[in-house]
Amino acid sequence: MNHDIAEDTRLPNPTRTLAHSAASSVPLAPAGHAAFDRPATVPPRRMTPHPSFAAQRVRVAIVHDWLVTYAGAERVLEQIIACFPDADLFALVDFLEDRSFIRGKPVTTSFIQRLPKAKTKYRSYLPLMPLAIEQLDLSAYDLVISSSHAVAKGVLTGPDQVHVSYVHSPIRYAWDLQHQYLNESRLTAGPKSALARLILHYIRNWDVRTANSVDSFVSNSDFIARRIKKVYQRDADVINPPVDVEAFSVLEQKEDFYLTASRMVPYKKIDLIVEAFAKMPQRRLVVIGDGPEMQKIRAKAAPNVEIMGYQPFAVLRDRMRRARAFVFAAEEDFGISVVEAQACGTPVIAYGKGGALETVRDLSHPQPTGLFFDEQSAEAIVAAVESFEAQSAPELGTQQDPAQGADEVPGKGPRQGTVHARFAPTHCRASAERFSAALFRERFFAHVCAHVPALQGAKLPPYDPPPRGAAANAAASLRVLAVDQSGVLGGAELSLLEIVKALRARMDVVLFDDGPFRAALDRAGVPVTVLDAGATRDMRKQGASPPLGRALKSVWSLVRATAARARNNDVIYANTQRSMVVGVLAGKLARKPVVWHLRDIVSAEHFGRRQLAVIKWCARFGLAHVIANSGASARAFMQLTKFDDRKVDVVFNGIASAPFDALRDMPQAALRARLNLPRDAFLVGSFSRLARWKGQHVLLEAMAQGGAALNPQMHAVFVGSALFGEDAYEAELRAFVAQHGLAGRVHFLGFQHDIAACMGAMDVVAHTSITPEPFGRVIVEGMLARRPVVAARAGGVTEIVRDGENGMLCEPGDARALAATLAELHANRTLRERLVTHGYRTAVDSFGTVAYVDGVERILKRVAAVAPRDRRGQAQQKKAA
């Protein structure tokens, strides 16, 4: 869950669902359908009121528009529930995965919950939302609280009920943002445009009419209060949204980068911020967030812009604390992220309109926390950043050497602590504390009590924070059976090891072979069972296999043993292709969902025809979800299997930086001496098992073809052994070395445990795969080792390396191009240093273990939570049949 980024509440084309229904001649709710036979009702329940309400026995209903994520509006809902913990909860739809913030409450939903594709296309049912919200029967309640940014305030209430509506905004896309919405939805002309305008006209009329049933309006800002007055002709009390300022702490010393974080949707204007920083190559920008605008924003990113995508809360908080300033270009109703940044002591550069004017104190204030720009344009953002820089000076006590560049501080590298005292971190924090969650609860509870006679004199319930993370849901007891076919420590196993170490208390591991991987798991304190792989040990990706009878007998033995262990777990997590096949069959026996962590590109270049057929069959027969280690892996899998793309997620491998950082101050000469490598040579390291598709021969050919450009000081170092019957390839490599007189310049180190030390001994890390690499773990490791990386331009590699910025790319198998690139790196120290600086940032920011483990755990929880409902649905269908 991305804690900080609010969901975009603007809706897509409202004509799409209606047009589709008309075209297919399938009514959205046919006559006699249960959705329209009766309203969604909740009978009055016998509830035990909270002690604060015992005397009054006030029955409370809380209505929210839709429950699909945890964003800005949901944070408000969370605190409203904290004020009224016994309230019942209603919403148009409920597709929550993490139910911690609603304290596990059941939710009464509308008929939209049951309409086709409601989970992903609920916004397209905008024309039906007014009807749907009116079908929620709230007649059993004394107090109705609506949390509304769309239609929740339109619930029907009677004369003896009090309706308090907390309005995040009147429906933006129907009111002052209608024309922007139509432009962005490409509905400016034609029949669909006319239909959309008609629907929005109907929504506006309904919105005004239903405002009459609200007894008291509360707005989240003065800006929204003015909008409420304009639209509904009603006054609203302002109670700013709650911000969890306690989750943030001040960091006095800032680093030299700017930050923006948001869901990537048009009105957030992230593209303008990225475009502005492209005009300021001397300024670094970090972007956190994901959404439909991602590709557009990536296309505008210059080398000084790091786009991290979705990140868990811990990563966002870390960047917010360290950033020089937070840049915000949206016209937002309130803007929670702006307050969160100030809670970290980080000043804000914001568009001077909307809620930011109420949360940021500019230079006119005696204790400013930021400054504003006047228009949403790249030029205005550039001017604001330059103005901010003009207000900045080096931190007190830090001396800057005039002979050094403006961005360097002696002994520190990139400058730090350069925020001027006028934007003091303590002032930023004090500004943020005006919007604490505790203050919100006090003010909102007092407002409601003032409008409900039965609550006069009631006391605010003590705050009981909802459980978070694993303890929050039924997934708190999540048990995972991880299955891997190998005992060796390959890239797939190293990646699994990070997951297992993080989830060791809830994870069992089954291996089909013994070896170093089992030893590593033992050291991590993880329960491991090694099964006898039998004849399956001889199966190969390219199609070689043992006799069919022996293979089937061995597979069935593995399936039964795996199923027996799966029965005590909630989900089977298969890490390799052979373990996925066994896992799918075992999952059917044990009735457990199976998630495959896909770490291969499933194409004819990597797999034999028989193996590809098996993968297609497994996808249809029993895979619940697929986690791909790159977009390239995901695309190849979906192209092969036609698998539902909603059940495929890309989670980049996470690699711990600690082993590499621990060696940062170790002299390279000492590392070379440990490995018996020449001290003064220019070493190019290749890190992989020795296999033809890994392309070690390309590096040798580059050494042989390089001529004078690759002088005798350049040596090749191969770290890795021949596995899985590839000894003949190793013999070929050694024969090539002897034939071309390279014996003194090529070093075969075999399998090594300490990869960080080996990489630290190199001058360059070379990745030479001749077929597309699914991910390229070695590349990220090379970046963490602060070594320049040369890689083959194919597969998942292109999602890691930006040519000439954080690494160099060559065409796969092109030894001449590789030789030229190595010669350039050998000669150009400045280029090497630039690649190292940007490469390390990429590795830490985009491929850290926190985001990796969080992403995998989130998917496993989701699959485990959905599986019981799927089984109940299947059982009901069988019973009905």
Structure summarized in a few sentences:
It contains 31 helices and 28 strands. It is an alpha/beta fold.
Please name the defining characteristics of this protein.
single chain; 881 residues; Rossmann fold; 4 domains; seven-stranded parallel sheet; 31 helices; globular; disordered C terminus
Word description of this protein:
- There is one protein chain.
- 38% of the residues lie in helices and 13% in strands.
- It has 881 residues and is an alpha/beta fold.
- It has 4 domains: 59-241 and 438-472, 3-Layer(aba) Sandwich (Rossmann fold); 245-395 and 411-435, Glycogen Phosphorylase B (Rossmann fold), CATH 3.40.50; 478-650, Rossmann fold; 658-847, 3-Layer(aba) Sandwich (Rossmann fold), CATH 3.40.50.
- Strands 3-2-1-4-5-6-7 form a 7-stranded parallel β-sheet, sandwiched between helices. A 7-stranded parallel β-sheet has the order 18-17-16-19-20-21-22, with helices on both faces.
- Helix 20 runs parallel beside helix 21.
- The longest helix has 32 residues, at 849-880.
- The model is unreliable at 1-55, 394-418, 469-476 and 871-881 (pLDDT under 50).
